[in-house]
Amino acid sequence: MELLPNIHQIRCPYANRNVFVYLLTGERTMLIDTALSDSPEGSILPYMADINLPPDNLDYILISHPDTDHQGGNDPLREKCSKALFMAHTLDAPLIEATDVLLDRRQDYSDYGIPMTPKARDRVRSLCHATTSMDVTLQGGERFRLSEGWTVEVLHTPGHSLGHLIVYDRKHRVALIQDAALGSMVPEVEGKAELPPTYRYIDTYLQTLHQLSSLPIDTLLTAHFPVMRGAEVQNFLSLSRAYCLNAERLVCEAVLDSSEAPGLPELITQLSDSLGDWPKRRRPMLAWSFLGHLERLEAHQAVRRIEGDPYVRWTKR
Asked: How deeply is 118 buried, as exposed, middle or buried, from its count of CB atoms within 10 A (0-12, 13-18, 19+)?
């Protein structure tokens, strides 16, 4: 649907969740993310046909960050939109260009006691057809002129990934942030908690939340949440920060209070119910944020890592 003049939201179903990609249409056109392997044929290209935008008229495809539901449609769209330039941040491009690199470097926590099963890896490969090389790698700070008087900015907003990018439309005070902020949970279609927030790098995530809070934003568009406007924007960013700081406090206390050095499996079992009411099968996804918090606590010399069998654990200094 066209949310604002020339700013379109395309819903791509993902099991019981929404994945939203965005299409900016001016003299030049930009698609933000490609969702899943079936999203181009199922959602993106049909929407483009409905608004009379031929595939060859798509100029830019910006991949905000490496994840199954953001890069999965890359190969099908490369085939259909042959003139479009694919773009991503330099730090994230290697994971976006190869699904196995994505799996090994971002989604498999075997060393920490939470391995990815062969069945899960095969499922990711079925949903994520990503062998497309990026035509352009970005650093953040680039500007794209889409029409006379309409230029958008690409900003580097790390935390969920090292190279996460957003698009900021200063003219309309719109921020298209995808997963740069994640609130206190990721919802399913009806709004109930489906996943824990999957930020990964704590210092940069908090810096990104501060950066977003300082921007003039009237409309906030994300990959998984309903459209936010007005006071909802700052409330969401504040909630994201509060959740992150509370999670770090709980992780730190759990390690310091433990008589036995816990690893990620023990911490997730102990703390999941204190942080959210997502389904039990989703609890392992706390590994993303918990590992980030533990690495930060290590850097601040609050806890100490113990390498060992069967997996890494942490204890007080």
From this structure: exposed
Say which amino acid occupies 302.
A
> Position 182: which residue type?
L
Name all domains of the chain by residue range, CATH numbers in brackets: 2-238 (3.60.15.10), 251-316 (1.10.10)
CA angle, 260 then 199 then 180, to 5°:
165
**Per-residue pLDDT reduced to its tens digit, 176-212:** 999 999 999 999 999 999 999 999 999 999 999 999 9
Q: Taking the complete model, does pTM exceed 0.85, yes or no?
A: yes
Q: What is the pLDDT of residues 1-40, one digit of tens each?
A: 999 999 999 999 999 999 999 999 999 999 999 999 999 9
Nearest partner of 113 among 252, 263, 258, judged by Cα: 263
Instruction: Assign 3-state DSSP to the chain and report helix, strand, coil percentages, each to 5.
Output: 40, 25, 35
Question: Tokens at residue 21, please?
Answer: 């990609």
Q: How far apart are CA 286 and CA 196, in angstroms?
A: 6
